[in-house]
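Colleagues,

For the teaching module next term, I've prepared a clean inverse folding example: a structure given as tokens, and then the sequence designed for it. I'd like students to try predicting residues themselves before seeing the answer, so please don't circulate the second half yet.
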């Protein structure tokens, strides 16, 4: 299965945003987690749309915290050479349990930025956990996942 972000893109994001090196195995683990978190956000967005008597998930239904919003903004400011491909995200979502409601156009268009914000949040969490070290190990990745599972 194709990942929502290619290894080279994630590697460039980590280097530019936090100055950290990345291996392909670590990238796969991080991307797998971020993909899961994206789907989790959309599931809660679906619930919120239902509570608001709508059958379409709006961007405002997705529980984007202040911290995640700041990461999304920082991601947009990075001006990476390659953008995150929306079609890769949609292809991934098509492999997940189907949502009852469709995504509004604004939300769908913002998915690459949400993914970028999630990736940047992961990178910044690793940076803090490692004390700003250039490299990290899989134990650091697991600790970051635990923290982000509690907060996202």
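(Answer key — instructors only)
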């Amino acid at each position: 299965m194709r990942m929502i972000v290619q290894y080279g893109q994630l590697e460039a994001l980590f280097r530019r945003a936090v100055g950290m090196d990345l291996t392909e195995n670590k990238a796969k683990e991080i991307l797998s987690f971020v993909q899961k978190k994206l789907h989790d956000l959309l599931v809660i967005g679906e619930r919120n749309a239902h509570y608001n008597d709508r059958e379409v998930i709006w961007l405002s239904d997705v529980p984007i915290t202040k911290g995640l919003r700041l990461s999304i903004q920082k991601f947009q400011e990075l001006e990476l050479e390659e953008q995150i491909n929306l079609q890769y995200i949609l292809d991934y979502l098509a492999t997940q349990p189907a949502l009852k409601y469709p995504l509004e156009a604004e939300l769908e268009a913002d998915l690459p930025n949400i993914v970028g914000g999630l990736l940047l949040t992961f990178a910044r969490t690793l940076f803090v956990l490692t004390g700003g070290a250039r490299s990290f190990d899989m134990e650091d990745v697991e600790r970051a996942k635990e923290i982000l599972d509690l907060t996202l």
